[in-house]
Amino acid sequence: MSKVYNEVDDDEKEDKGNDHQEFLQETASTKRLSLDETLKEDEDDNSSSSKRSSSTSITKSIVNRALDSNVSIAFMSFITTYAIYGDDVRILGFNPQSDSTFLVLSSLAFMFFLLEITLLCWCRSNYLIQPNFTAIQEQLTLDRWKGRQSTIGWLGQLGKAMQMGSFYFWLDLISTLSMIIDMPWFIQLQSTGSSNNNVIDSSMAGKASMAGAKAANKLKVIRMVRLVRLAKLYKYFSTKQSASSSSANKIAPTTTSSESLRQSDKESSLDILPPESHVGAEMSDRTTKKVIVGILIMLLGIPLLQADEVDYLNEFSMKMTFEHRTLITSTGNGNDVNEYELEQWEFSESLLVDSTNCIDVTYNGFEDGLSNDAIIPSDRAKIQDLRVEELDVITIGDVDYVRSMTAVFDASERKREEALSGVLLTSFVIVLLGLGMVSFTKDVRNLVIVPIEHMIQLVREISENPLGKDLSLNLDLDKRHKDDGMETTLLIRTISKIAGLMRVGFGEAGADIIGKNLNMTQGTDTMNLLGNGRKIHSIFGFCDVRQFTDTTECLQEEVMLFVNRIAHILHSIVVQCDGAANKNIGDAFLLTWKVNTDKLETGTCEDHNYSADKALYSFVKTMIEMSRHEDFLCKFSPRALSELYERMPGYKCRIGCGLHFGWAIEGAIGSSKKIDASYISPHVNMSETLESATKEYGTSILMSEPFYNLLSPEAVAGCRKVDVKSGRLTSLYTFDVDLGVGFAEHKKSKARPTKSRLPHHRKTAISLVVSEPGSNILQRPADVSIRGGGANNTNGSSLGDLPAIRISNNFPNIWRTDEDILRVRSHFSGKQREIWGLGMKAFEEGHWNIAKTHFEDVLDQSHGKDGPSIYLLKRMSEYDNCAPVDWMGCWNS
């Protein structure tokens, strides 16, 4: 029985457990649904909040552009002009009946000013600056007070944190509130009207009117605060002019292609203002603020120090008249009238009326039976026809004012004179304010801001085009600024020199490094020298100076002159042929010609700008010029020459060259201590291998088949295949050059061109190439010049009189028109080239006995000097002039 109960209990427990588990699952599901709904609501709230924020930002941007639009600026300028001149113009040219119209206009101007301030506070964060309460709390802590460097600096930081509103916010607010002083007289005019007599009857109102008139004259100076709104107009037009100048600078290079116009642009480069920089805008803004504050202090301070003009005639005449009127009854008994004093009173009253602009006289408290109103000429103005501010009310009386006299004077003429004076003063202040801002900012701008902006523009242009020399700023062409002695000019010239040094030092491979590290838009202060490289396709030319080790031992210190003279000739020609110098390794030089491979497969030689022709021509022309200027290359001290020719009699400076085409990785190699901008690739090493092989083949130039395939038919006509290899090199080619034709004698027979005959753009340049839009190869810009010239030439004085080398870029016709090229090729005739071709064909096909006959024939015709024939005959003799069994038309090694 207990077992049954136990089973029942177990079943009940199990049912309860299942019910509890289901309850928990339902609760968890409900919680998940609630959480999902909450998250969805939060997402909806965030989405709606972001939409509202985006909508608000768009609205603010629209309002901001509307406030800066030409229409808005012109409208607010018109209202500002009215606020400055309106009150004076009202008094000068309009009658009192027009005052209500001016009241409406002034009220509208006041509301428009308030509306502008409200919109600026809403859409511009830097206009209504809010106090930074967090910074205020930090500044007021004891630790910050103890850690202060100076009390003045601590107070400055505290004041900056407590700043409420910008400078222009307070000026706008004060100038707008100053319009309130023009409102009361309109209100008084509406409330007085027919009750002017009541005002005059009140002696206390008369005294208040006098005090109010004096206060109004003081307060009119406050209207000058409205002139600061013209400063905003000045800043607006200055910004517009700077923006239009910047746009013109950007558009000018694309719309002008003539060389003469580009030269004219360079000569006037310092006259064109660059885009306004942050430091220029800040300095101009601060100078404008100081000018505004200085002029306002002067305008508000000077009138407060001046004494008020007092019209003694009116008050003196009234006092004399009042005294005589008082004495009429005071000297007699009861109501008896003193005839003498009566006559004196009548004379005084007539004198008061006739000698002043009095338009009304009223006596109060006199019981002498005489009239309480003076007789005023009918031609005088009426009180109701004049404005309140055009009335001078004077009241005098006895001690307790039981008896008093009130006179009203017409001040309309004086008010018109004051209005005219106010117009002239306002105009003068406007001119003074404008000239002050212009004159104060002109020197600062010319001496500081513009040079700084030129420096920034120069750095920006260098970062955008590190290898370019056609910069918008050229001090050498501007004689006015060349020797002005200003440190800023020295800094600009120094930046240009540093840019030239970077171009020469880093080279074409370091263009990206210069551009990235000089890019001012990046927010880092550290140099980013190392990183991923960039894959490029280029022609690599490697040349090596023959017998350099022996030459170094003989020349010792003068070996640097020797190497640099060779580099001068080589680099001058390479750069003129759109190439770039990369490495100078003592006796060897690495040159590059970048090639755009977009049309390499299907395009012609012209599509890649005859890059291969220019590379081959550069090396051939360098050999020719080195032979022509042998005296220049070997111009050493007697000791060095003696050792050189004693060790190597009949020494001639010669080089060997290798040319190859392929890909490479361009970038920086090294560490943060020292980097070299160069190329890493087996194809770079291949050009060096080809140069080394020139000694074995007895040639000056060796070319790989990938390079050979880029040559034009005109260049191929002077080339011949000298060997076939397996692997990357496949076939080897050479360009036949005979330097024993006597270029030195040929040079002496011709008139040597003087430096004055050379055009400016042919100065020898050490430069690197830069990409030109629309071309398939990188083009060479003008660059840092190294000129030949005598003792006065600082660049070339130690190297001697550097030869100025000119070449033609008439490719590919240059292979048929250049006399030097034709001379060095003349030793290898067309018949020899035909025989060599037959021999090379037999060599590749394995008929070495036939090839041997042709090679020997070529060698005999060259008088035993043909290097490729000697090499192949020697190599075939190692196999008994029979092709190996596994011969496949090329060597395996």
Q: What would you say this structure looks like, in words?
A:
The protein is α+β, with helices and mostly antiparallel strands. The chain contains 33 helices and 13 strands. Strands 4, 5, 6, 7, 8, 9, 10 and 11 form an 8-stranded mixed sheet that branches. Strand 2 (391-397) and strand 3 (404-410) form a beta hairpin. Helix 1 crosses helix 3.
Features:
disordered N terminus; 8-stranded mixed beta sheet; alpha+beta; rod-shaped; 893 residues
Produce the secondary structure layout.
Elements: H1 2-67, H2 70-93, H3 99-123, H4 133-139, H5 142-146, H6 151-161, H7 167-177, H8 184-192, H9 196-201, H10 203-219, H11 228-255, H12 259-267, H13 278-305, H14 312-330, H15 339-355, E1 358-364, E2 391-397, E3 404-410, H16 412-464, H17 479-482, H18 487-506, H19 511-518, E4 534-545, H20 548-555, H21 559-576, E5 580-585, E6 588-594, H22 611-628, H23 630-633, H24 638-647, E7 655-670, E8 675-680, H25 682-697, E9 701-704, H26 705-708, H27 713-716, E10 719-724, E11 731-735, H28 743-749, E12 765-766, E13 784-785, H29 814-817, H30 819-825, H31 830-845, H32 848-861, H33 867-877
Parallel strand pairs: 7-9
Antiparallel strand pairs: 1-3, 2-3, 4-6, 4-7, 5-6, 7-8, 9-11, 10-11, 12-13
Helix pairs in contact: 1-3, 2-3, 2-16, 3-7, 4-6, 13-16, 14-15, 16-18, 16-19, 20-24, 21-22, 22-28, 31-32, 32-33
Please give a quick description of this structure.
The chain is α+β, with helices and mostly antiparallel strands and 893 residues long.
Mean pLDDT: 75
Q: Name the shape in a single word.
A: rod-shaped
Any idea what the radius of gyration is? 49 Å
Which range best describes the helical content: under 10%, 10-25%, 25-40%, 40-55%, 55-70% or over 70%? 55-70%
Strand proportion: 5-15%
Question: Which regions are unreliable across 5 or more consecutive residues at pLDDT < 50?
Answer: 1-10, 189-212, 248-273, 748-797
Structural class: alpha+beta
Number of helices: 33
Count of DSSP E strands? 13
Largest pleated sheet: 8 strands, mixed
What oligomeric assembly is this protein in?
single chain
- How many angstroms separate the termini? 104 Å
